[in-house]
Amino acid sequence: MLGGGWGVRLPILAIGIAGWVWGFLWLGRAALQFGEALPSPSQRVRLAQALLLIPYIVINLLFTVLSFWHPLGAEGVFITVFQYKRHRDAACTVFRIDSYGDRLREAWFLDFEMVGSAEIAYVTRHSGFAWITTYRPDGESLAWAAATARRCPELGVTGRPMVIGEEVGALRSRGFRGLCLVGYGPDGWLENWHQYSDRLANLNPAGLEKAARFAWEMILDLDQKPA
Hints:
Elements: H1 6-33, H2 41-69, H3 73-104, E1 110-113, E2 119-127, H4 139-151, E3 158-163, H5 168-173, E4 179-184, H6 205-223
Parallel strand pairs: 1-4, 2-3
Antiparallel strand pairs: 2-4
Helix pairs in contact: 1-3, 2-3, 4-6
């Protein structure tokens, strides 16, 4: 996929690794420290989001330059942008977790990704371009989804591993519950994910309805759990 020498591949890999370290180990907590004097968590989150804006603009300007002079051309730029976007999304999630974590410790998080596809699944293992980015949902959420799938076989929702990185990774890194529902294509991969084909014309209404119904059934099952 990278089709170039290691002199090009290693810097791109370094960007990805630096982004994970920046997003998970420093940015989420350090940015909030600037707002310790603010009276409410919501104000601290707003400040933290603003602190993200400057690096976001600067890096996007950098990507514009790379689109003209990157040695791998458009494909190399896509990989670099994709890595950065994952880290930015995760950092935004980390900000909220670090601000409201005490209130959300018992929450059940359910993420939706590309559920406008014909086939729907809950993710049992998330993997990326490197093994270090692999993570899994918590056992309770996984059992929750599996129980709903057994109770509602007519929906045809199953568990499957998926090549995907999203906000559940940030939740799991902090020890929170988290599960992802995804839509996938005939080849078993995420359909239209981060592609130009991700548009309303390609949305599958039946798949979207299936995802909504399965999530609703999960909520009903959760409501039956003892407090």
